[in-house]
Design goal:
β7 and β8 form a beta hairpin. The strands form 3 sheets. Strands 2, 4, 5, 6, 7 and 8 form a 6-stranded mixed sheet that branches. The chain has a 5-stranded parallel sheet with strand order 10-9-11-12-13, sandwiched between helices. It is globular and about 80 Å long. 45% of the residues lie in helices and 18% in strands. It folds into 3 domains: 85 residues, Helix Hairpins (Orthogonal Bundle), CATH 1.10.287; 165 residues, Histidine kinase-like ATPase, C-terminal domain (Heat Shock Protein 90); 120 residues, 3-Layer(aba) Sandwich (Rossmann fold), CATH 3.40.50. The N and C termini lie far apart (83 Å). It is an alpha/beta fold.
Length: 402
């Protein structure tokens, strides 16, 4: 009798590979759609936020309408957070990947994670020394936040604690990759595990847990773990979710380990910064959306800036080459027809090296080229944003360029 074990194993491997390719294509197409939706909605939210800010500034002290505009701003920020989740599901991000200390990142996020847990106790465990991984800090932080929030909803305030364990790097062999919903390549990985003792999930629920907007709670929830899946795909990392009814759930996030010496000095926290009240800087504002262009020009002019607008890249380059006015910095939209914002900034810097620039984007699937970040004072500002965030970014690049 012929031994067909090897043939059968080869057939099963080919079948598994085919399914993985189909799954990747499915997520890629959904990711493109999600990223595009996030871009368009962020543009609209930026316009709404800007006009709400203008209207609120025109109200007198103690006006009964101030609270209404505050609610509009809060709703826009919540909608912006949803757009960020869509971008995370799409597996995209605003910044370049690099070496980060996973221990420092989680330690620095403890207060944020406790707030995300909404009263559910957390227990953190760390290895001795730093754990260097290749990744993007804000996206990894988002993945951990989503997993913690999911665990907190499973156990409630009276349950817990939720255990958050950062493990030292380990080598994942082919056999150890089994059980990962998103399996990393064979290699060395550091794993963050988020474990709860909640109600757990059935096998049927577990099979659909990373599907977008699938939820056992109520309509409108369910992007949390889907976004985690997208973040892990972008990092080429691993995701393993294990659960049993009545015993709780474990979510493991695996990130490729790198040498500790590659870690930057510190993980920089995101902050709006401070804004000086008066300035007379001359700014070139470039955006193909006339509504955003006019809105930002009006807001900046009201605060003392001298603003010249351009409708696209070629128009901006022509205005920049003119002898007057002599621009001190530029605010450039990333996604424009024909020439993106990074290319426009590079053209500026060919004429004037180290020229300061703020690049604004509602489309977050492009990594920032190192040549742009290293070419001069540069800020990347994600839509939607409050005018205070824009002014802070403007002030920082102006200060750095002086």
């Amino acid at each position: 009798m012929k031994d067909v074990t090897a043939e059968r194993r080869s057939f099963e491997e080919q079948e598994a590979l085919g399914k993985q390719i189909q799954e990747n294509r499915r997520y890629d197409s959904l990711g493109i759609m999600a990223s595009g939706l996030a871009h368009d909605f962020n543009n609209l939210l930026t316009i709404i936020l800007g006009h709400a800010s203008i209207a609120k500034s025109k109200l007198g002290p103690g006006s009964a309408y101030v609270d209404h505009f505050d609610e509009i701003e809060v709703a826009c920020q919540r909608a912006g957070a949803l757009c960020n989740q869509l971008s995370a599901y799409a597996g995209v991000g605003r910044s370049s990947l690099g070496a980060i200390d996973l221990v420092e990142l989680v330690r620095g996020s403890e207060s944020l994670l406790r707030a995300e847990a909404d009263g559910t106790p957390l227990k953190f465990t760390y290895p001795d020394g730093p754990v260097a991984v290749h990744g993007e800090a804000s996206q990894i932080r988002q993945a951990i936040r989503n997993a913690v929030q999911n665990a907190a909803e499973a156990v409630g305030r009276d349950g817990g604690p939720i255990e958050i364990d950062v493990a030292a790097p380990v080598v994942l062999s082919p056999g150890e990759r089994d059980g990962f919903q998103l399996a990393p390549q064979v290699g060395t990985y550091a794993i963050v595990a988020i474990r709860d003792r909640g109600a757990g999930m059935t096998g049927e629920v577990l099979e659909r847990i990373v599907d977008p907007f699938f939820s056992t709670k109520f309509v409108g929830r369910g992007l949390g773990l889907a976004a985690v899946y997208g973040i892990q795909r972008r990092h080429r990392g691993g995701l393993r979710i294990a659960s049993a009814v009545g015993r709780g759930t474990s979510v493991e996030l695996a990130y490729a380990a790198v040498k500790p010496k590659a870690i930057p000095v510190a993980v920089v926290a995101e902050s709006p910064g401070t804004v000086r009240a008066t300035t007379t800087a001359t700014i070139l504002l470039v955006d193909d959306d006339p509504n955003i262009r006019e809105l930002l020009a009006m807001l900046l002019n009201e605060r003392g800036f001298r603003v010249t607008t351009a409708k696209n890249g070629p128009d901006a380059i022509e205005r920049f080459a003119a002898p007057e006015p002599k621009f001190e910095m530029a605010i450039v939209d990333f996604l424009m027809p024909g020439m993106n914002g990074y290319d426009v900034v590079q053209k500026f810097r060919q004429r004037r090296p180290k020229f300061p620039a703020v690049v604004v984007s509602g489309f977050t699937d492009r990594e920032v080229p190192a040549a742009v970040l290293d070419g001069g004072p540069t800020e990347i500002l994600a839509k939607p944003f409050r005018i205070e965030h824009l002014l802070s970014a403007v002030q920082r690049v102006l200060d750095a360029g002086r």
